[in-house]
Amino acid sequence: MRLRKIQLSLALIFLLSCKAYRPVTYVVFNNESKEKIDFSIVMNDREKNKNLSPRQYQAKPGLQEIPVREFRKGIYALQINTHNGQQSKSLPLRLDSDRWVMVTYIHEDSLTIQKKFGIVDTGMLKKVAGKYSGIDMYIENRRPPNL
Predict the structure, then answer these.
(1) Which pLDDT does position 61 carry in this prediction?
(2) 22 CB contacts (<8 Å, ≥6 apart)?
(3) CB-based contact 28:101 (threshold 8 Å)
(4) Can you give the pTM of this predicted structure?
């Protein structure tokens, strides 16, 4: 009888832990410019058609991980805004497991971009405050090996 109670309690704990799992969204921000940048992350719950509270951050030059946030399983739209919303990038995000969102930001003059990358893609970059600025974003299902 005692063994039966232990088995039932373990089964109950297992079932509750499976249901309580919440996927985590990790945001890795690579700031290619030489100055700090203020940006916001907005998550939109597409199933409920509701914007979740935007979070404000400041990125230093270089690679950095933004604090982790957990969400319920579902379909979201992730949007990154810079320069007070003048520039933004949005991608759909399905959270059924942990996701890594890789964001690259650049805000430099055309000569510096030409030296660093070999080309100035004006289709992707916008001119903001006299310099070219751009955001690129993609989503990984696994932790990138270089982090």
Answers:
(1) 92
(2) 70, 71, 72, 73
(3) yes
(4) 0.77
Beta strand 126-128 with 37-45 is unpaired
Please report the domains of the chain, with CATH numbers, ordered by start residue: 23-140 (2.60.40)
Contact assessment for residue 47 and residue 75, using Cβ atoms and an 8 Å cutoff: yes
Indicate the average pLDDT of the chain.
82
Q: Taking the CB of residue 107, how many other CB atoms lie within 10 A of it?
A: 24
Q: How many CB atoms lie within 10 A of CB 101?
A: 19
Q: Which two tokens stand for residue 37?
A: 């940048």
Per-residue pLDDT at 83 exceeds 80: yes
- For residue 119, CA distances in Å to 59, 75, 86, 124, 130 come to 25, 35, 23, 11, 18
pLDDT at 94: 85
The torsion angles phi and psi of 62, rounded to 5 degrees, stand at: 110, -170
